[in-house]
Queue: 4 jobs
Job 1
Amino acid sequence: MDIKSITMEIEEKVIEIRRHLHSNPELSLQEYNTTEYIYNMLKDTNIELQKCSSGTGIIGILNGRGKGPTLGIRADIDALPIVEETELSFASKNQGVMHACGHDVHTSVLIGTAIVLDRLKDSFNGTIKFIFQPAEETMQGAKYMIDEGVLKNPDLDHIICLHTWPFTDAGKIGVRHGAIMASANRFEIEVYGTGGHAAHPHKSVDAIPIAAQIVSSLQQIVSRKLSPIDSAVLTIGQIHGGTADNIIAKKVTISGTVRTLKTEVSENIKQSMEEISQNIAKAFNGDAKVNYYPGSPPVINDKQMVDLLAEVVTENLGESCLEYLEEPSLGGEDFAFYLQHVNGMLFRLGTRNELEASQRGLHNPGIIFDEKAISTGIITMSSFAVRYLNR
Ligand code: NI
């Protein structure tokens, strides 16, 4: 039997799996039942299953007929702290937790892909590692899996993953060369004055006007210090300071996020932020400290992998099902941490249909993913793996 026929045969079962996962979401690093469930779904296959040491997260290893490369396929399995508002018959039974990023779809697509490839294991060489990763939403999971040794034994040659995408039709695959997701970083600037009586500003250092100058000067980093070719977002999301109307503020905290498509751009922004904050504070006898928290690096797709995917999609789903995405997303994705060690690709699984609820953004409490995407995901992943391993 071929990939498509097996996928059609198991589609209903995999949709049931997806609904079970959707009803029973678990937060990052608490995916114990999800891990157990994945184990049970795959325990009767030839896939060698290894649960991670903490009991959340699981790796499956499937060997083909002969020697060959090793491909990692990763699905994230965690949900979000969101109260679900979909009114689906299989809505979350875990109050306040929801699969609003589609990780239930990712997990079921990977389970389905594992079932398909297990049946076809004599048709490819090499090894597939199925990586069910916890805690993507908190950006902890990929590093955790790397610490668990997922890159080694056998060593990964490439790694791929998919992510649901409510801006592409269900049945289609979206991808782009180069950057597809941004580097997401956090910062916090502490501005220090001395405090004092509001009536005697000349006898103290006021942190508020210093902070105000820093806020407006930070706007010039993207417009005046970066190359116009490099894109970046610098958003200040919070500013807190002062204690009373008649007291000169001693401390102000400014915090926000920096998104870039290149790691070096993020480094440049950090440096400019320090120069601007410290020099402005110094000019008014105050002080400033910049805390910069690097998050995930950008996700940069490997050219060969994208070209191979394009071939596979065109051949198996048809040319009209391949969508080259014009823009990367400035969202962050911890899959980038694997890409610091091994080349790979993230692609988009379209989940949009004519219903408004399917067109809402990821993390929206009312988003409904079109389940037609599940078979598209399984066919694409399985065909990609076989093609890659037999290259
Ligand atoms: Ni996600």
Note: The two ends are 21 Å apart (CA to CA).
Job 2
Amino acid sequence: MGGESARSIGFAPAKAILIGEHFVVSGAIAIAIAINLYAKASAALAPRGSISISAPGLVDGAGPRGARSGGDPFEPLASMTRAFLERYGIDQGVDIRLSSEIPLSAGLGSSAAIAVSILAALSGLFGIRLGREEMFDLAFISERILHGNPSGIDHATSIYGGAIAYSPSMGFRRLSVDCDITLIIGDTLRRRSTREQVLKVQDFLKRNEGIAREAFERIREISEMAISCLEKGDMRGLGALMNENQALLSKVGASSRELDRLIGAALEAGAFGAKLTGAGGGGCMIAIGPQEALDGIEESIRRAGGVPYRVRMDKVGYRVC
Ligand code: PMV
């Protein structure tokens, strides 16, 4: 047989939730930005009926839970791919190769970015102009299999890029943020399951109605104020709101000792604000601060046992090459 058939490449960014994780699952507004860490999928035609997905560079595949439970870690992505092919009446198989620079199971939306990168690659391969809403629905297929009851914010942010406000009932709103946003991420290196963290926090909220009511009321105000800070470029104000959000996340059991240590270290080094991002219980925290404090914040996180890195907001979302 001849050489390889042409491959189509898709990229999709990770996300960091600035405000509102967990509460968004029950309907609150969350705010997230896409960040410049990317998942990459390359897709080529394969014999009819064959969907092959491989990821030699990924530690435990795009579906860590599938891998741990002994199932096929790529089945959620294969289901999504089948749904794409069916929806567009494509009677062809595909070969998909994945790579990613996004830490897995760390709160940065790696599984969503991988799903979106596949959809981007498939749309390029078959010359289909996928609307963002269609892409959102399709990526939800694998996200639901992996995470149980996700809000949708991870893949929404990866698709749209930039800064978005999202709630399951309102959908997304792109925020007009002119400034560049730099985040320091601190990885605890402790991996955890989003699904289990979400169940744990939802259970806490159900059993503690008083705390839940107060927290939801405050989160509503925090989200509104955070949107206005972002649109005005008021990073100091945003930082104060992130700190308040972290206190609420701690109260409902989403944080961890390691996260608290890294958050404390970032604040000591002059961060405006620091909090866990994503499901918590491990994974990553984020900090924002003045330009001149960023080196110190990274160093402080390192000394506290975390792995720091610096990321910027991605303004574009997914790309097809
Ligand atoms: O940990 P991640 O990157 O999967 O983010 C989860 C965010 C939650 O709000 C906890 C769940 C969700 O679906 O919104």
Note: The chain has two domains: 7-178, 184-312.
Job 3
Amino acid sequence: MNLIHRPRRLRSSSVIRSLVQENHLQASDLLAPLFVKEGKGVREPILSMPGHARLSIDELVKEARELFQLGVKTIALFPAIEESKKNSRASEAWNPENINFRAVQAIKTALPEMLVMGDVALDPYSSDGHDGIVDPVSGEILNDQTIEALIKQSIASAKAGFDILGPSDMMDGRVGAMRMALDEAGFQKTLIMSYTAKYASGFYGPFREALASAPKKGDKKTYQMDPANAREALREAALDEAEGADILMVKPGLAYLDVIYRLREASTLPIAAYNVSGEYAMVKAAAEKGWIDGDKVMMETLVAFKRAGADVILTYFAKEAAKLLAR
Ligand code: PBG
């Protein structure tokens, strides 16, 4: 054939392929979420997330050190709170002695350069299992009352040493309220990575098992977004940007690559993708059955986030991927 254009020329050897490779994944792009609970020497496996466990603080510090050495220098902490410490106000969320705050202090003492992100939302501490305050009569999730609680949680989190705060609650106006309160309290340097477009998703199942944090009643559809919507994500992004967010996040990741792409086009801020627990669990389960090559699918998934425009990837694959990248 007399073909002028033969795109395969650029795929003909591994050297030419790497020469023209458009997107590169690095350990420094990855942010590792970790689960923490009370105790000593505890690594309690999370059944739906093979390879992950609820860690006591001593084990958490070991895990963080290993990640840091592999080049994953940002982590996010998620505390499993004892049922007896949960109440309808979620007041454990700003108790300066809570497990989450003791955990960040231990990590910052052992690894001062590690960046640590703390979630801002009430669900791990709420006896109702909702991210916000529930009206006891109507069952409504109360926006403005929730913001007051989130402010207390934010200030206490910054005091405890968190470098990045991640409001994952989807209340209206929380980014601006947090930024103002943080600045007033002298925490100008504390970053806000907003869960900007967080969808009411079925992909959070394993995470809610890990923290026993599923809603006791109803669902999260009055605050998390409808999976059918993308324009709405641009509205949320514009608001978060105007309110002072430093980084915009899309969650879940894989089924929402179009949303990542749209936010990338619409904003100059860094964009983060949260490759959530259910996405991790699906890959692990299929790989365990021998139905897919787990490593291949993991790396393909992660580079897809970069191709879509994400700068930061929150992923339970962080350690495994960093190990593969180091080879
Ligand atoms: C809580 C929160 C959730 C996740 C992160 N923060 C769960 C939820 O909104 O129900 C999910 C993370 C994951 O599934 O990996 N506000």
Note: The longest strand covers residues 191-198.
Job 4
Amino acid sequence: MKITAVDAPEHAQVVRVADAPSGLLGFIAVHSTQLGPAAGGVRMRRYDNETAALDDALRLSRGMTYKNAAAGLPLGGGKAVIIADPAKDKSPELLRAFGRAVDSLNGQYWTAEDMGMTPGDMAEIGTETRYVAGLANGAFASGDPSPITARGIFNAIVTTARHRFGWKDLRKATVSVQGLGHVGYHLCSLLTAAGAKLIVTDIDPEHVARIAREFSARAFGPDEIFAVEADIFAPCAIGAILNETTIPMLKTGVVVGGANNQLATDQDGQRLHDRGILFAPDFVANGGGIINVATEILQISNGEAWVASRLEALDQTMDRILSRASAMNVSPNQVAEDIVREILHPKAA
Ligand code: NAD
């Protein structure tokens, strides 16, 4: 195993991890440990090249610092990426090699599930390190975080709809959902139970077929979803999908979803604001998952009640952000970033 330091001035520590026998190649990025050990999932996907994977790790780990701070957790921000196709390349050897890489950081970074990973994969990683959460079994096991992530997004949808439209009864709402994986599936289930109408898309036709069947959703192609008419757009797939090309296409009053880093650039928050589209900052809306994971890292004994109270606090934070953004006539993302900076640098605020 080769673990080499990567120069990243804004980050506390970044390493490239490579293990030829198992095929492991990736990066672990620790953005900040100011509030506690860095925590954030490991993502396995194909990347065009190493630079793209490193960029993703750097961006996502910074996002975790913001997410953990906004959720009021005593955790810093970190993230790992593995350059591999989860359908073809994942093996116990590769996962164990990754576990050894995590362990080499001596608890500075805690890993958990992200795209392409499952609780079973966490168990395999856990054979080599104790710095892993999102396990299915064990004294403080928190399992798959996506149902709680979806619950947090659902709460954010209700709160954002109230701010933007003046109603919170989702029987009035049509919601378009992009990405029908773990988070998207549970979100569609909650929205259907609340009486919302669903418009959905995914690049995987099986995921679309399942949601259309179970929740009577109308399906559109992946490129069509941006232009469909809906009250609320919920991006639950990949990042950077709100950009100078897609934002002018949107026919929705609100964007609230689970995907990390939905804005391609900082200007895109302003672009949405200029179009009168209320954007719920993703690193606040999707904080439910890391709250759930935190019960395991922090060894919380009454986990369910603790998660419920933290989700409520997260929703209040979202409410405060939207109120302040409205009063200041600025993008909620700007306000959310300011609030996190106040937490991270209290004296400078
Ligand atoms: P997942 O891999 O289970 O699902 C992602 C889905 O998006 C898949 O069905 C995939 O086919 C689809 N997809 C990919 N590219 C697409 C595209 N261009 N158009 C339409 N669909 C596309 O992942 P997940 O766990 O559901 O996570 C979804 C997003 O939420 C990710 O950005 C992840 O980082 C973020 N997130 C997840 C959690 C969690 O608890 N799982 C927590 C916080 C944030």
Note: The longest strand covers residues 24-32.
